[in-house]
Structures are given as C-alpha cells and as structure tokens.
Predict the 3D structure of the following.
Amino acid sequence: MKVTAKAPANIAFIKYWGRKDEKLRLPVNDSISMNLSEIYTLTTVEFLPNLKSDEIEIVGEKISEEGKARIIAHLERIRQLAKIKTFAKVKTKNNFPKGTGLASSASGFAALTLAGTLAGGLKLSLKQLSILARQGSGSACRSIPDGFVEWKAGNSSETSYAYSLYPPEWWDIRDIIAIVGETSKKVSSSEGHVLAESSPFYQPRILGMKKKLQDLKRTLKIKDFEKFGEIVEAEAINMHAVMMTSQPPLFYWLPKTVEIILKVGDWREVGIPVYFTIDAGPNVHLICLKKDEKEIVKRLKKLKIKKIIVNQPTKGARIISKHLF
Ligand code: DP6
C-alpha cells in the first residue's frame, strides 16, 4: 500500500538538549513544544517486492550518506515491527525555504513514521507512533500529537513519548520565524546532544528543569502570556549557554541573531509583549499574541530580515490523499 503523511515541524518552549541513553534517544529532561502550521514535511512510502534496496529521494536536496543511513535504520525499525523484509520507495518533500538553515528532522521522521507504518500494514496508537518517531529523531516524537505537546523523558523506550497537552485551538499565539541565514558552524543537533554534558552549566540546567517545566505548564494552563514568554526566553538562553560552554563550544548565533534578540527587549519596553526562542541554529522564533503579529512583522522587515514565516499552532502528523509518486 502507498501512504502519504504530512507532519509539522515544532518549536520547543522547554528544550531537549542532552540524552541519558544515546541509542534509544532518551532525553535527559521532559520538553514542551508547539506544532508549527507553515513548515512541514510530506512523505510517501511504499514497500515494493521488486526493490533490491531502499530507494530514498528528498525533492530538491542531495541526501548525505549519514542522512540516508538514518532513514534506512528507521525503515528497518518499521520492517521489524511489521515483520516484513520488503524494501521501500520513499519520497519526501520539505516546504522549508532553501538555503535558510531551516531543516527539520522532527517533521521528517514524524512523517516517515506515520506513512511508513501504515504502508507496512501496521496500525499503531499515537503513543506507539511517538515512541517510534523518537528513535529516528528525538524531537520528531513531538510532531506526532496535536497542538501543544509534552514529551515525557521516561526511563525506557516504552515510557519516553509525547502526548498532546492542549489542541491547537487552546491558545491563538504566533511563532514568527525570522530567517537570518545558514548556521555558521555545521554541528548537527545529534552531535550537539553528546557534547552537552561537557558544559559546566549542564548539571545546573538539569537541576532547575523540574520547576521550570511546572511553571511553564501553569502559564500555559492559565494563558499568562507574559510569564510564559519570560520562561520560554530564559530557557532558550539557558540552553545556548550550555551549547556555548561545551567542549568544543557550539556557537549557533550570527550577528543578526543578536541584533534581533536586543530588539525584542526594546520592543517589550515600548509595550509589545514579544519573546524569543532559538533552536540549534541562528534563526530567531518570536513568540507573540495574534494581535501583535502585524506590528512585529513590520518591525522585522525594517531590520531587513530576508524571510519571515508566521506560524500558528497546528495539528500533528496526519495522512493525506495526494501522493508524491
Ligand atoms: C535544539 O531532535 O534534532 O531543537 O534526536 O539527535 O535528532 P536528534 O536531535 P533533535 O534535537 C533538537 C534540539 C533542539 C531542541 C528541541 O527541539 O527540543
């Protein structure tokens, strides 16, 4: 059977940085994210008896050997669960703008997990899908459920999965992504996780996590935007402090990243409630309320940001009827 899935990228408000089990991709702490409406991956999978090996294509991109091996390893997990030996044809399309440093293993492995399992004849629960997606890429487990999502770190493969805290309609907030360019240092998050514990700030970060998670969940529940934004911003700075102090250090920011960070502070001073968060790259995510979206986009344009993507909360991975081949 040929199956096509669409999965969103997600932005973490409380981040996953560091693992307690490399092989199973068990994170050291729980994390909380929101699925993004405007950046996603489409993936079609079909297991075909005549194939001699897996055929993988990412539209408009050249796949690295490492990337290919990671996808094949994931297909292998699916084959084992489905008890099949057939190779698969996989075609994937990302809608992210090219050359912007925006790439997401989260949307990619979430889409591959949903399309691949159904194409292999499996009907997994949301929990099982999230567990499987996590093994391809940690953050992918958060792109399976809808809206606002929590990934419980767990202490085994079966207990480490994400679930929906609230549907997308819960809170009409925005994630405005300011694309500032390619990351200057090409260290993937997969490699970065391994370096995290070499930072002297890693243990203090973990020690503060429990309270931070509780506080963020409370602000999400009562929709206290100001407190929510303060936690989100402090958390991003905290993770980047660990990155910058690991051995070797990881500097994901560019001059433009810092320029926007400083502006966000200025904008708050003139009464616009806006907060930033940043993943393992230079692009800045500006979190704001719907009512302030236009004003913030206007201000970003004045800073000559070449590409701006306005996201709202959205559903998780789902099946679509239009195939890529
Ligand atoms: C900074 O999920 O990309 O975006 O499990 O190795 O694929 P792998 O790592 P990945 O790490 C994401 C790191 C982050 C924070 C986050 O999304 O929580």
Q: What stands out?
A: The first strand starts at residue 2 and ends at 14.
